[in-house]
Amino acid sequence: MSTRTSPWPHGIPCWADVSATDVRASGAFYSAVLGWAVPEPDEQWGGYVTAAAGGQLVAGIGPLQGGSAAWTVYLATDDVAGLAARAPEHGGTVLAPVMDVGPLGRMAILADPSGATFGLWQAGTMIGASRVNEPGALTWEDLRSTDPGAARAFYGALFGYAYDPVEMAGPDYTTFRLPSEQAPLGGMGPMMGSPDGTGSHWLVYFGVADTDAAVAAAEAAGGSLLAPAKDTPFGRMAWLADPDGAAFTVMSIEASQPAPDRSG
Q: Which residues form the VOC domain (predicted)?
């Protein structure tokens, strides 16, 4: 099992959460698809819940606060205030200012120059996900951008990422990584099959033991299939939406290429 107890290094995708019209119903859906254990919503935290797989935290679910349901990826930092202040200098927008989340940590919500929303997380007692690269846990993140070049410049300025092209993934798609590491953390590229009218966004990938079984469970629980399951050099994948329309991907962890090393 790939678990972690210490804070994630600066720039590593460390958490993801989804907005939902009904947190309980959303929890039931993801429990059916990904095997999560989801507690009852706690009003102390505004109805937000943290889901677990294998006894370790993997992702969050929170009430939809206007707009459309979507997944948000959080990037780790040891200076959330500093990054939030610098983001506008590079074309970003602060959507929700820096706030303390009790003793758990500090966060902010930003948008990159093409409009993709993402979060910043500075760990306190909560590091973010403590289980990754396993069934039910995050395995990959893609930025689908209307302007990949501008996006790479923006994230590179804030996090110092290095970028590597992936020939088999098509033009203008790269992986991103910490300069001191060789393992990729995720990808950045064009919209890559997103429906017309879709804005720039981050797409989360969750590991599953059986992609086809996860698709069947999603459809039975009220989700929809956005793109059929297919075999890729990185594992068998399927693009799904939950009952609220939030898009995500499931990815077989029995892949010919290992999942990214987030050890930092």
A: 11-123, 136-253
Q: Hey, what are 232's tokens?
A: 């890729």
Q: Are strands 93-101 and 105-111 parallel, antiparallel or unpaired?
A: antiparallel
Confidence grade of residue 176 (pLDDT, cut at 50, 70, 90) = very high
**Which of 63, 92, 123 is where one domain is finished?**
123
| Helix, strand, coil percent values for the chain (each to nearest 5) | 20, 40, 40
Q: Which domain holds residue 38?
A: 13-123
Alpha carbon 52 to chain centroid distance?
15
Q: List pLDDT tens digits, range 119-158.
A: 999 999 999 999 999 999 999 999 999 999 999 999 999 9
Question: What's the rounded Cα separation, in Å, for the pair 136 and 53?
Answer: 6
What pTM was estimated for this model as a whole? 0.95
Residue 260, pLDDT score: 52
Sheet holding 235-241, edge to edge: 162-165, 174-177, 186-189, 138-144, 201-208, 247-252, 235-241, 224-232
Q: Give the tokens for residue 233.
A: 């050099």
Consecutive H or E run containing 218: helix 211-220
CA distances from 157 to 28, 151, 172 (A): 39, 10, 19
Q: Which helix (H) or strand (E) holds 93?
A: strand 93-101
- Please check whether residues 153 and 117 belong to one and the same domain: no
CB 114 within 8 A of CB 151: yes
DSSP state letters, 113-146: TT--EEEEEEESS--S-SB-SSBTSEEEEEEE-S
Q: Which helix (H) or strand (E) holds 224?
A: strand 224-232
The domain total for the chain is: 2
Same domain? 75 vs 146: no
